[in-house]
Each structure stands twice: as C-alpha cells, then as structure tokens.
Amino acid sequence: MSVDINAIFQIAGIGIIVAMIHTVLKQMGKEDMAHWVTLIGFVVVLFMVIRLLDELLTEIKAIFLFQ
User: Fold this and answer.
1) What is the residue extent of each domain of the chain?
2) What is the pLDDT of residue 63?
C-alpha cells in the first residue's frame, strides 16, 4: 500500500480554502452562507476520506484473505 501524499495535500488545501471563504463571508455579515460553505467543505472532505478508507480496507482484506 502506498501512501498517497496528494490526498493529504488536497484535504489540507480544501480546509484552507474553506476557512478563508468562511472568514470573508463572516466579515461581510453573511454568516448563513459561511456556515453552508463550511458544511459543503466538510462533506467533500468526508467523501474523500471514505474513499481512502475503502481503499485501505480493500488492501487489508486482500492481505488477510491471501487474494
């Protein structure tokens, strides 16, 4: 199993961008939109993590089932 360092940088990049957009929207007084942006960013990262966990569990299953 290789460590996909690009996925870590993508998740970090999404976090930084979402934090910046959240801050700008909050400063503009649009707190509802800021919360939606944060929620959407969280969901996107959650799907990325779920995909990575699926790959990890597939790899573990292949190792222990000798496939």
Assistant:
1) 5-64
2) 87
